Amino acid sequence: MQYMVSIQNKSNFHQCGGFLISEDFVVTAAHCDEPESPIHQILLGSHNLKVSNRLLKNIDYKCKPSTYRKPGLGDDIMLLKLSGRVHQSNRIRAVPLPTSKMNLKENEKCSVAGWGRISTFSSNVDDLRVVNVSIINPNICKKEWGYLPSKVICAGGYKTYQGFCQGDSGGPLVCQGKAVGVVSFNYYANCDYPNKPNVYTDLSEFLPWINKILREKKCV
User: Fold this and answer.
1) Which residues of the chain are modeled with pLDDT < 70?
2) Which of 11, 121, 135, 178 could make an S-S bridge to 108, C-beta 3.0–4.6 Å?
3) For the domain 4-94+206-216, what is the CATH superfamily, name and number?
């Protein structure tokens, strides 16, 4: 998982996950950067947050969809332009993105990773953790939540003890070797599953927006 990055605040503490998609761009969740808790730098090249053999990059600029308001209303995605290009190696490597809408099947096994809490009232961890989660039928997900924004994927947290938790926000949902989703929200920050399905931003719905930013090197 050489694509995983830790997005950190001005105190150099882990705030969110993210993933490298090119030599100078990272994807994360829009809600990871708010006025009361701005992000500051990105750690790459290590699965342990405490080791010295790691790479830190500042952020040149941040791009959010103009339609984003809060996670529960959707469009919870953000692109971060790194202050310099990253040399990809066996420690740092971008994750492939889908080229179009992926036909994810119900119960298809995917994975999510992060340095977030391992239970509702625990603390973030130093070592990257990975868990397998299953895709949930969109109709079931909508029924369980009552309301869901468009352009989301549901996986994990429902009828299982596996899912993401606070601190994992912004990390990728990886299916078939591609990053297809971005960790967005769960049920009232409750990670003591099972309860309602975990919700991810559907990355394929934002491919034109992402590709235009990568091509023009500016927010659009």
Assistant:
1) 52
2) 135
3) Trypsin-like serine proteases (2.40.10.10)
Domain at 109-204, CATH class: mainly beta
pLDDT for 131-153, tens place per residue? 999 999 999 999 999 999 999 99
Q: Where are the domains of the chain?
A: 4-94+206-216, 109-204
Indicate if 109-204 has the same CATH topology as 4-94+206-216.
Answer: yes
What are the distances in angstroms from CA 67 to CA 75, 77, 143, 160, 220? 7, 10, 25, 32, 12
Structure tokens belonging to residue 190: 């409750």
Residues with active-site annotation:
31, 76, 169
Residue count (the chain):
220
User: Model pTM greater than 0.90?
Assistant: yes
DSSP H or E segment with residue 139? helix 138-145
